[in-house]
Amino acid sequence: MRKLASCLGCILLLTLMTQAGNVQAVELSASQIAEIQKEAEQGDAIAQKFLGSIYLKGRGVPQNSGKGVYWLQKSAEQGVFDAQFILGLIYYYGDEIDIPEDYAKAALWLQKAVEQDVADTNVTTAQSILGYIYASKKFAQQDDFEATKWWKKAADKGEADAQSMLGMFHLIGRGVIRDKQKGCGLIRASAEQGHKGAIESYNKFCAD
């Protein structure tokens, strides 16, 4: 019962963080941080995710990317979608100071996240980023067919970046059959969502 009761505090913080959009908007007291730390050390996956976010943002503790990633990975290893997704983003974008860009780790965690098939809008974001990773020559396992596979999954759900990129790949026949009609259709769908790159591409390649 004690563990359940303490986790209710974590759930309340999760609600506040979700409403605020990010952990920066939530003021945490020293006692709240101490309780989250205690629960994280005892193996609570949600507390581990919070603690990782707290260290990443430096809310109530000195900012420490290394500790942030450590606790997020503990949470991710227990299957928490948010932690897996955040880790994927961290390794995809990198941090010029503490966390180097690492496409292999980014792909690992983003794929674990999307494999859960949870009802979360970040699933399509993760799928789109996986497309970018597999399309990049910086990735040792670069694979255009894998890239377009992930973009199609996201594009089918209306993700504008994925629609734009998949459309361009159809125009040039990279990883998919060359098909101007299909490519321009995807680019137009992205442009209609206000995607600036898609608007430029449509005007350049599709506006006859």
Structural write-up:
The chain has 208 residues and is mainly alpha-helical. The protein has helices at 2-20, 30-41, 45-57, 65-76, 81-93, 103-115, 122-135, 144-155, 160-172, 180-191, 196-206. Helix 6 runs antiparallel to helix 7 (122-135) and helix 9 (160-172) runs antiparallel to helix 10 (180-191).
What are the salient characteristics of this protein?
about 210 residues, mainly alpha, 11 helices, about 0% strand, elongated, disordered N terminus
The largest sheet, given as strand count, sense and whether it forms a barrel, is:
none
Alpha-carbon distance between the two ends: 68 Å
Shape category: elongated
Q: What number is the mean pLDDT?
A: 88
Uncertain regions spanning at least 5 consecutive residues: 1-24
